[in-house]
Amino acid sequence: MTDMSPATPNDLAAWWMPFTANRSFKAAPRLITSAKDMHYFTADGRKIIDSVAGLWCCNAGHQRDTIVAAIREQAGELDYAPPFQFGHPKAFRLATKIADLAPGDLDHVFFVNSGSEAVDTALKIALAYQNISGQGGRQRLIGRERGYHGVGFGGISVGGIVSNRKMFGLLLNGVDHLPHTYNREKQAFTRGEPDWGAHLADELERIVALHDPSTIAAVIVEPMAGSTGVLPPPKGYLQKLRAICDKYGLLLIFDEVISGFGRLGFAFAAERYGVTPDIICFAKGVTSGTVPMGGVIVRKHIHDAFMRGPDHMIELFHGYTYSAHPLACAAGLAALDLYEREHLFERARDLEPKFGNAFHALRDYPNVLDIRTIGLVAAIDLAPTEGSPGLRGMRAVEKAYYDAELLTRVAGDTLVVTPPLIVTEAQIEEIAAKVGRVIRLVE
Ligand code: PXG
């Protein structure tokens, strides 16, 4: 019999871990066994502060009583209900709550189980909408360099991360990419949105001119690119994208998988920037990371365009067995309730200046090339070690875990900090001090 105790696993081979250096991990496993509020507890009995909300998802912190209770109760009441041709009350309640949080007439919610599914769903809805609106020639999609939109074929096609694309065949046809918006010379050590770079949105005009607007369905961007090292949008950039999309009849999709549910101090980044997209993708924070869930919010006219034809006909041939899973809906309702009761989005907004100060104070530490802060997000670019890009970053994550009791993330050689929104001012200082220590440890 294999010992299955989580604290002492004796066989790590069977689980092929995602986005992980499997052989290094299995040679020195970092096993997390429990969590509470701002902390993780490890198999070797240590308490580690979570500076990344799990993976940008546990926005309310860990093991929050009301969310735990809601999941427990739901499991004891309705474990599963089919979402095709049937429904359960909490799915409708959660959709209504999310639609209320979303700006403008983003009124209808399609549930999925992850950010990747949300992105592929959004792209399919955009293409189908153009098709049923007599615009079937609009089949092209536009993404952006350094964009991350999950790992489905749609998401990697519009995404702009070479290593996520190059092994996986021909991807979707007819995809172009806007240039990314980062320029260290022009933007280094910016707090919030950089002054330089709005003009990069004009590249959309160039792509439209090349193909003709009648061939383009949609543009998808993260309002703030997260996974490739935190690239806040230049001032005015998103507004420009919106104007160009309006001019040519392109749908604008915001992938808010990371920026949704308070990370930038608002329910959605769309609200922070006063730019209303046609479609929003969400996931992660909707359940504070407790049960997998994602979704797509669409504007009323997009949804309504599908609601025609005979009443007995299925309007959209798309969906997942676990769309609107009862456990996810219960967790989502409890998470949104907690965000509201504890004013966590406002809290993130109020903490932003102090959070920025704490991390910008590291600018003179060794190897620091740039620091970007926005909302409760900080990114610190470290100089790569000669000939081994990513090595200093990986060592920093390991040093943080083993020597500083800090869970952090890295994108290449960029350290990323995105704590739960319950983080206190003292914990912000604590995390910044630990990050400083780690930077010195990998000098
Ligand atoms: N879109 C965006 C903008 C994301 O950030 C996804 C889609 C995909 O979500 P799923 O649920 O399919 O993983 C993401 C995911 C990191 C990191 O360290 C970011 C993500 C996932 C894992 C790590 O930056 N974002």
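^ PXG complex. The domain at 22-60+343-441 is CATH 3.90.1150.10 (Aspartate Aminotransferase, domain 1). The radius of gyration is 22 Å.
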